[in-house]
Amino acid sequence: MSGGPTVDGHDANGQHANGQHADGRDANEHHTDGREVDGRGVDGPVPGRRGAGAVVALAGRIVLAPAVLAVAGALVLTTLVMLAVGVDPALAYPALVRGALYDGNLEYTIAAFVPTLGMALAFAIPLRAGEFNLGGDGQMALGGVVAAALALNVTLPAGLGVLLPLVAAALTGALVAGISAPLRTRLGVPAIVTTLLVSTPAVALASYLVRFPLAEQGTGNAQTPTLPDAAHLPALAGSEYVTLGLPLIALLTAAWLLADARGVLGYEIRATGSNREFARYGGVAVNRLAAVTLAGGGAFAGLVGALIVLGPPYRFVDGALTAPGYTFTAIAAVLLATGRPVAVPFTVALLTILSAGGPGMERDAGVPSQLTQIVQGLIIVIVAVFATVRHVRRRRNARTEAGA
Amino acid sequence: MAVSPAEPPAAELVGVSKRFGPVVANDGIDLAIAKGEIHAVVGENGAGKSTLMSILYGLHRPDAGHVARNGARIRLRSPADAISHGLGMVHQHFRLFPELTVAENVVIGAEPTRGGVLDLAAARREVERLGDLYGLRADPDARIDGLPVGIRQRVEILKALYRRAEVLILDEPTAVLTPGEATRLFDVLRTVTATGASVVLVTHKLTEVLAAGDRVTVLRRGRVTGRFDTATTTADELVMAMIGRSLGPATPRRATRPPADGPYALEVRDLRVRDRDGVPRLDGVSFGVRPGEIVGIAGVAGSGQRELLDTVTGLRGPGRGDSGEVLLSGAPVRRGRHPAVAYVPEDRRGRATSPGMSLAENLIMGDQRTPALRGRLGLSASAVRERARTLTERFSIRAASVSDPISSLSGGNAQKAVLARELSRGTPVIVVEEPTQGVDVGAQEQIHALIADARDQGQAVLLQSSELTELRALADRVLVMFEGRVVAEITGEEAGDERLGAAMTGATTGGASGTTTGGTSGAAS
Ligand SMILES: Nc1ncnc2c1ncn2[C@@H]1O[C@H](COP(=O)(O)OP(=O)(O)OP(=O)(O)O)[C@@H](O)[C@H]1O
Ligand SMILES: [Mg+2]
Prior knowledge:
The complex is a heterodimer.
Chain A: E1 6-7, H1 52-63, H2 66-84, H3 89-101, H4 106-128, H5 136-153, H6 160-178, H7 180-187, H8 191-211, H9 245-262, H10 264-274, H11 276-281, H12 286-309, H13 326-336, H14 344-365, H15 370-400
Helix pairs in contact in A: 2-15, 3-14, 4-9, 4-12, 4-13, 4-14, 5-6, 5-8, 5-12, 6-12, 7-12, 9-10, 13-14, 13-15, 14-15
Chain B: E1 11-20, E2 23-33, E3 38-43, H1 49-56, E4 64-69, E5 72-74, H2 79-84, E6 87-90, H3 102-107, E7 113-114, E8 117-118, H4 120-134, H5 149-162, E9 167-171, H6 179-194, E10 198-202, H7 206-212, E11 215-220, E12 223-229, H8 235-243, E13 266-274, E14 280-289, E15 293-298, H9 305-312, E16 323-328, E17 331-332, E18 341-344, H10 348-352, H11 359-364, H12 381-394, H13 411-423, E19 429-433, H14 441-456, E20 460-464, H15 468-474, E21 477-482, E22 485-491, H16 497-504
Parallel strand pairs in B: 3-10, 3-11, 6-9, 9-10, 15-20, 15-21, 18-19, 19-20
Antiparallel strand pairs in B: 1-2, 1-4, 4-5, 7-8, 11-12, 13-14, 13-16, 16-17, 21-22
The structure holds adenosine-5'-triphosphate and magnesium ion.
Magnesium ion binds next to helix 1 of chain B.
């Protein structure tokens, strides 16, 4: 091996120590690096890649976002199904939109949006800390029962008559969800399991209470009597079904979004969710925080139960809370938002419109309303596929950084 | 080595460029690895070394340029392609299944079968055969989770060799090894190259390059700035090509005056700690660190350093059967992170950072509740950004943007971010583990200066390092641990390799400081 060292291309005879690049391939080493002026050249922005390019890149990022692709993919597949079974999509889709938004249906859709958004938070809040709350149904049902029992048995002035059941329901939901936290820290059973396990008996307990101790006497219906007027959630002006619950949930959602993005607690929750050991190292009481997020999620579920019960028809009708499937739709919406909290209200709106428009589509276009559930299911499947792909890719990238 | 110039290189990167958004990581790089050589690749943090290795192993696709094997251009779309072309990579973060045995890990994914089922006996024989061939002995039936880091790395190498790798890529393999393990690794690599295989070695330790490498390629800002024969070059010359200037002589930065004889800032009293199985890990450790003093911790891996530092930082609460005290300025340390202790953990990805969060978010952890970062609504976005800017500048952390995830930083820059966060907190006590792992020589010097500064400001520093040169350069006293006890306390001046080495193996006779030769370390650190 011959040839002296070549530093920065100051090679006397153009030959490298390895004697290989006789064909001039090394030419690119010989020009001066003009970008070194500021001492950080390599990392500075490259001129000409900003501006128009950035806009195109941003647009591309939005169009290619997993959520957008999932919705588009689901709609394409649904259209194919419609064509296969001989339904005209040109009829079905307008019917779906009409069924959700027009002909006086908007009110019902908004009335369904409120509990779905609440349940979305019940799932999303613990998820930020890496905990899965799958027990929304139980938390919601028990919250609703507590609200109904309070309203029926305690005479309160207007205002307080609404506030107290709401708060009590939220506390109940928080408690039901919170049980999962010590089960995890003490016994090591993950919340995804315990929340689900607790949910079924919780729903059953609510059902029992409504059918027996709290049941309306003499009708044989599985429901409580109508709640006293003081416990009725005021309806918004000009509406029958949309109550004060809408501004309340909107406000709470905004507060959560703010806390998540800017709050110290939000930061600590995100840190816990992304690397628990890192958060612990940084002085975050990770176990307590996980408990707080589970309880916080449960509180929203309990609150939703109360909002349903205190709204029209102002009573707890057995099954009315869980039957519409708010919990499942909400989970789908949160997964569709793929880790972007601000997207949650929008994905909730989208999926609510889909499920609310189903009956209208069935009536006007003769398409079974179950089709909307198929669409929802497809969205979840596609999102899951994306998540898996991303996971695999991240693992590959992790290897890339292996020696970093 | 004997390389005939006529023979095509075993592996070659030709005109390779790669950019990540605005960052040009590789910019027209040519690199030829001859058959049978150990080719070292060195360069500053963020120079593009890992990116280049990832391209060679099919993990990244180059924007321009290509890879060739034995003179023929090849296409690498994935590591699987690379493996089929005889390229193998040993990852720094091992990709082994802890609950499987050595033999199972070596053959996984390419198992020898008999009648359609895994032939474990054949796998075991294969591990033994390769082990004998390359001097890479490892018990085929041992479970990975019970093995020390050095052996795990051997298993990774065995895995690559089992897949018939003829070009072995190692990205900073010695960052996690003790000096003894590193020496054994290079013995193995020599045996491997003796069979005609080649090794590409990325490292920041120039002594390793000069001792073990045949040729060196220096990268700077994505370009090749030098090619050298190790036989005819010096560490100085390499440094010059890497950072464009020479380093001053490695000056010891021990305290110029002895610390005041006042009270300890950090005191450990008769600490006894058992692990979950009841095995004693710390067996009566007592010492103190005064303000304005750096106390080093040395010892072979697993001598109790982990338990000691976790207890001192409050991350490990007292368990059953534990006793003793940790006092911070006289008050017992409480469980959980203590605000008066800054802490640079060794485990960068698992503990010191959250790879998915942004650089700015990573830089505030631990301080998120301090008033300085408060805005009207929780954290002040501008204060967070401002702090990130200040720290990236002061510690010359290279990142395209502080809102990029910290995982997009090069390894050394991520390490600098952790140091920046902890050293800037001005706490009375600083606990530092392996402060210069993965950082380039220039940054090593800078980091040493910063730690010495902290000491001169009156902070008490507890420094754990497997680099004896680092301990010697910084520590005023070195405590040597062995089997859960402090077996020797040596002043910085007296902490020669001989003396430390003997104490680390439990030979506590102490005696005269080393007069014999055999020091392994020396140059730029
Ligand atoms: N996945 C990525 N996304 C964005 N930027 C990246 C990515 N990987 C690397 N970079 C950038 O490319 C440059 C080169 O990084 P690379 O990891 O190759 O450096 P390196 O030479 O290995 O440094 P170190 O010695 O610190 O490990 C750095 O500026 C880094 O921030
Ligand atoms: Mg690297």
